[in-house]
């Protein structure tokens, strides 16, 4: 059986590098000002505390299992199993985002699949569902944002992999193939690719004045003046900024 699945268009490396300097909270706040009211993927949470990652989304869609369309055996006809095919597209820095329907009974990936993904340079996975083999997977060095873990394999119970690199709803958020994911301990944010340059410009300025404001607040400065940065503090901020650029 020959199965062909589409690849994604990846953003410029400098765009990824720039967005890697901001967190999910800043990304979410600035995206709201750019017109995306709620870019947060709800459900998956950090299972690798302290990890953060930014990269393009490879997407995998699961559907409710129907036995006439998909058998139950873990190793039968492996190339029919589309969770493998999303990993075949992996390039360094890619993030796999999975709509597993919030299912808590099937493990989308296990140790062997994720070892392959890591070996190809994958950064991490966002799964609205579970993985298995977590005691070993946690040591692979991947970022993991999950609903949970299970001993069951991917099609053992209620769901089966249906499509690769198509639009998906992960944690009730729309994710388009190639969208940029920003993930850290606060959660996971989806950055629409066409808004990424505007987000980077806005977030870079935001991060700069927050550095200044954080310093002034730590020195006992007035919260009303320094957060958010009030107009009568801007000259002080600009002077500080010029010193930092020297």
Structure description:
This protein has about 250 residues and is α/β, with parallel strands linked by helices. α2 crosses α6. The strands form three sheets. Strands 1, 2, 3, 4, 5, 7, 9, 12 and 13 form a nine-stranded mixed β-sheet that branches. Strands 6-8 form a two-stranded parallel sheet. It has two domains: about 15-190, Ribonuclease E inhibitor RraA/RraA-like (Glucose Oxidase, domain 1, 3-Layer(bba) Sandwich), CATH 3.50.30; about 200-245, no CATH class. The chain has eight helices and 13 strands.
| Structural class by secondary-structure content | alpha/beta
What's the average pLDDT?
93
Quaternary state reads: single chain
Largest sheet: 9 strands, mixed
Order of helices and strands: HHEEEHEHEEHEEEEEEEHHH
Supply the number of structural domains: 2
Provide the helix percentage.
25-40%
Beginning-to-end CA distance, first to last residue: 62 Å
* Rounded Rg: 20 Å
Summarize this structure briefly:
Helices cover 31% and strands 22% of the residues. By secondary structure, it is of the alpha/beta class. The protein folds into two domains: 13-191, Glucose Oxidase, domain 1 (3-Layer(bba) Sandwich), CATH 3.50.30; 198-245, no CATH class.
């Amino acid at each position: 059986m020959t199965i062909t699945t589409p690849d994604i268009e990846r953003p410029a490396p400098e765009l990824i590098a720039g967005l890697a300097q901001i967190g999910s909270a800043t990304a979410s706040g600035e995206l709201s000002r750019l017109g995306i009211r709620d870019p947060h993927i709800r459900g998956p949470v950090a299972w690798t505390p302290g990890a953060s990652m930014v990269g393009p989304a490879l997407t995998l869609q699961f559907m409710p299992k129907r036995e006439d369309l998909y058998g139950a055996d873990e190793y039968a006809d492996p190339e029919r199993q589309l969770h493998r095919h999303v990993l075949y597209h992996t390039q360094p820095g890619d993030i796999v985002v999975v709509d597993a329907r919030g299912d808590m009974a099937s493990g989308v990936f296990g140790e062997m699949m994720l070892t392959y993904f890591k070996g190809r340079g994958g950064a991490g996975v966002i799964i609205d569902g579970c993985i298995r083999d977590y005691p070993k997977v946690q040591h692979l060095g991947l970022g993991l944002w999950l609903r949970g873990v299970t001993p069951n394999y991917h099609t053992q119970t209620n769901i089966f992999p249906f499509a690769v690199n198509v639009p998906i709803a992960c944690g009730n958020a729309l994710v388009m193939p190639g969208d940029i994911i920003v993930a850290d301990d606060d959660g996971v944010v989806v950055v629409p690719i066409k808004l990424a340059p505007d987000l980077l410009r806005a977030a870079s300025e935001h991060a700069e004045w927050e550095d200044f404001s954080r310093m002034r607040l730590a020195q006992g400065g007035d919260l009303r003046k320094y957060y958010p940065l009030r107009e009568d503090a801007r000259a002080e901020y600009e002077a500080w900024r010029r010193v930092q650029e020297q």
